[in-house]
Amino acid sequence: IRSRSDQQKLLSEPFAACVADAWSPSASSVDVHLSFKVVQGVLRVGDTVVGLPGETPMVCRSLVSFGETRESCESGDIVEKGVFSPGSHGSHAVIDVSVGSVLCARSHLLPVTTVCRCRLMVFGTDLPLVQGRQFVAHIHTFTGACTIRKIVGVINKKTGKLQGASGEKRSACAALGRGMVGLVEIATATSVAVQVKSTAGNQDGKDAPTSVLSHIILRDRGKTVAAGVIVATA
């Protein structure tokens, strides 16, 4: 549950939303209909946003949330149907904006990448996380194949720091087993828009809330193998 101050901070952030569904009302229509959840900021009818990863500019024409027509939506709102007219890319908007896309403000484009560095906690798995092992990655509404590119190292659970990062010799780590926390580089098969986990704390000294755009879950054969946050992009 977010505090009032956290919610106010999210409202002041540039707009960003995760697309859960996308469809065209007809074969001849140039508009695209989107269902999405607002992660941060405010979207108003008439605003121009960009759909990532394809960098598709679109103008918001109407918003429907909880069965009511709205003039705006804000952080935490679920929009059942938003009608958008594509910008300069025209007919390519339907192709470039789909489930797993992210809408964001033109002035603040989020990173789009195929390689990200993550802090992961390993759960139940018969085989450890090793370089080259493949999984299905779940990042906000994005779902796609991914591969472990590199095991950077083990993270100390008590300090939260990478073992050996303070100057002492770092022991080699080729695998992460059950219950371990590590820093891992992951490569996705397709580009995905993400938000790097903020290291800045709140005024009260507590960690800033983690955005859903920073969360990552690795699954294999229907089981959750590891989960964590994205801390850097390539």
Explained architecture:
With 234 residues, the chain is mostly beta strands. The protein folds into two domains: 4-105, Elongation Factor Tu (Ef-tu), domain 3 (Beta Barrel), CATH 2.40.30; 112-233, Beta Barrel (Elongation Factor Tu (Ef-tu), domain 3). The chain is built from two helices and 17 strands. It has helices at 4-12, 93-96, and strands at residues 16-23, 32-40, 42-44, 48-52, 56-65, 68-70, 72-74, 78-86, 102-105, 112-122, 129-130, 134-139, 142-154, 175-176, 181-193, 215-220, 223-233. The strands form four sheets. The protein has a six-stranded antiparallel barrel. A six-stranded antiparallel barrel has the order 10-15-13-12-16-17. The chain has a two-stranded antiparallel sheet with strand order 3-7. The protein is globular. The two termini are 32 Å apart.
Key attributes of the depicted protein:
234 residues; mainly beta; Elongation Factor Tu (Ef-tu), domain 3; 2 domains; six-stranded antiparallel β-barrel; 6% helix; 50% strand; Elongation factor Tu GTP binding domain-containing protein
CATH C-level of the largest domain: Mainly Beta
The beta-strand count equals 17
**What is the CA-based Rg, rounded?**
19 Å
Determine the fraction of residues in helical runs and give it as a percent range: under 10%
